[in-house]
Amino acid sequence: YFDFIPDSDNYKPLEQIAVQINVSPRTLYVRIRDAYSLAGEAFVIPKYQIVSALVGSDTEADLGVSFEYEADKDVPSMSYRSYIAFSNPNYTPDCHSYESQFANYGRYFVYAKQVEVVADDGQIFYAFFGSGLMDVIVKASRVEVENKYGRPIYAAYKFEFSDGDGNDVTPEEAFSITWKNTPEIVEYFTVYGKDELLDISEKGMVLSKQYNVICFIEGNSMAKAFTPANIALATICGVLALTVVALCVAWKKQKRYLV
Fold first, then answer.
1. Residues 134 and 68 grouped into a single domain
2. Residue 251 within a domain
3. How many domains is the chain built from?
4. pLDDT, tens digit, for every residue of 183-220?
5. Where are the beta strands (DSSP E) in 98-248?
6. Contact present, 132 and 138 (Cβ < 8 Å)
7. Do the domain assignments include residue 66?
8. Which domain holds residue 193?
């Protein structure tokens, strides 16, 4: 097999010679860099390097490079693949990972932005990190803290990030924690180490590696008992009680007259 080079002195014209010519696209060895995006975001275009030489004056612009993804941009995973395709029929790509010599494809990662975290007492939280979360274990543990808030602390939760080997990988940057279904007695929350008490209805707070403990603070349980629904229920119960008393008095009077 030979590459035909026009105007080369290495060739001489032959006449009336039966030949069989097979023309195949030139295979180009391509190395694709790892690439990633966050769940729900559009795919990014990986960087790549074409190692093989092109024919004649052809350049990469003549290849018509495009990317194909065996991936779901909305589902976090580290097992996705990416490939290069050429629209130029004279070339075909032979794809390989730049970072892994054993992978005949590019590696594409989709990182989660948010993960569900269940504390040891069943309280549900959601950890959100803008740079993505992948192969990270987020743990919420109840801890004992000094009460500096003048109200009872219902519970305090510490958030820790670790990898598969147990190493601390809590982000240096800020991350967010949200929650749902807090007990009715909880009216406020705060980040331990800070003085501000926030209403529990806000359901979220930005934490950091330095400030990674959330405290749930109890409110005024007596005041909370006097809600419109509770007042209405108490009124009904009072009316029923008075009715029962009146009936008992009437029954006793009737019994006395009969005697």
1. no
2. no
3. 2
4. 899 999 999 998 888 888 887 888 888 899 999 999 87
5. 106-118, 124-133, 137-142, 153-162, 175-180, 186-191, 198-199, 204-207, 213-218
6. no
7. yes
8. 119-223
